[in-house]
Amino acid sequence: MASGVLTYDDFQCIKCGTCCKKQKVVLLTIYDIYRLSEKLKMKPGEFFRKYCTISHKFNSNGLRRFYLKADGGCPFLRDSQCSVQDMKPVVCARNPFYYMEASLAAYKVFGIIEDECRINEYPYDTMVKGDNDRLIDMDILVNATDEYIQKHGRFDEKTAAPYYEKSLEDLKDLDLRAEIYVTLLNQSVQREAMCRTDEYYQGAMNMYLSGFYNEFKKAVKGSNGVYSFEPSALGMIDNIMALVLFEKDFKDVKKALGKQNGADIHTKVTNFEDREYVIVSIEPNGGKKVMFYYHIEPGEKKGLIHEPGEIMIMFKSAKGGSFIFKGRDADGWLSSATT
Ligand code: SF4
Ligand code: SF4
């Protein structure tokens, strides 16, 4: 698909249900609780007791919020389809568009969209534009719910009812909507700017834009068709781009690639500039050559000559906590990293 601008209305969700299956918790507002309980012909209190929880665990600023209990997948997902589609929570209604404006690379940097999502078919420099009204609705409804939780600390029908009414009024308040529009737009512009200027995010952003990460994942996924993993971090180490995998992931990736019939795998321990490295070279049958350098001690590894298309990643022992990456994608993009 060509890069450019992708709007909420243009996006064709394939309804694979992955974003719902992988959900552990789904944020709920009082508005959602009332609408869903009405749809399911339950009292809001009864709905809350059966399907909801209150927690601060999933919120980076420590605020307690209401969530749908979705451990192991959302309870309203049936045959990969949402069974409450017309009343689904506002947080679901804006998926997978989280910002008013941000590049797809920024989405990837923040790790907020599933790998299986169709949105990944777009180039990473695509500007992704969310549905402003849905995003504003969500902000208004979350704010009203936060206010309620701070005052009452739990859900109960008697005290929540006025907040539901207030939420409905707030949604129609044009001054409030205009104010939130400006705030949300500023937030998304700041996030994008952060990706482009902050050293850490810029490294990750460049990695996505370079296509390296995509190539790497394709190489790994191609090995057995189902394997998927997430890097523990992406970013810059000493001004050099780095893809960080934990040792377990490294082993899983190696194992996944190794399962491919005919894969040519070599492992050897070598010393380079007084440091010890385990070098794993994997060439999937008919696929792109992938090399992993798992190094025992942190340090630099210079002077290696690599062909375009090779991808090399150096890992430090899990005990150390830092890693090294050196890579070149099919387009000849090259980067290296040292701890
Ligand atoms: S409510 Fe519907 S859209 Fe939201 S997570 Fe559950 S199944 Fe998915
Ligand atoms: S993961 Fe993406 S494509 Fe699949 S259902 Fe969710 S939004 Fe749609």
Question: Mind sketching the topology for me?
Answer:
Blueprint (H helix, E strand, L loop, with lengths): L4 E3 L10 H4 L3 E4 L1 H10 L4 H8 E4 L9 E5 L7 E2 L2 E2 L7 H4 L7 E3 H6 L17 E3 L2 H21 L4 H16 L1 H24 L1 H12 L1 H13 L8 E5 L2 E5 L2 H12 L5 E9 L2 E9 L6 E6 L15 E5 L8 E5 L5 E3 L3
Helix pairs in contact: 2-3, 6-7, 6-8, 8-9, 10-11
This protein binds iron/sulfur cluster (SF4) (2 copies).
One iron/sulfur cluster (SF4) binds next to loops.
Number of strands: 16
Q: Mean pLDDT across all residues, rounded?
A: 71
Major sheet summary line:
6 strands, mixed
Basic shape: globular
Tell me which oligomeric state these chains represent. Answer: single chain
| Total domain count | 2
Distance between the termini: 37 Å
Helix content range of the residues, please? Answer: 25-40%
The SS-based structural class is alpha+beta
Radius of gyration: 23 Å
The poorly predicted ranges are 222-244, 260-270, 272-339
Ligands in the model, by name, code or SMILES, are:
iron/sulfur cluster
Strand order of the largest sheet: 11-12-13-14-15-16
Report the portion of residues in β strands: 15-25%
- The number of helices is 11
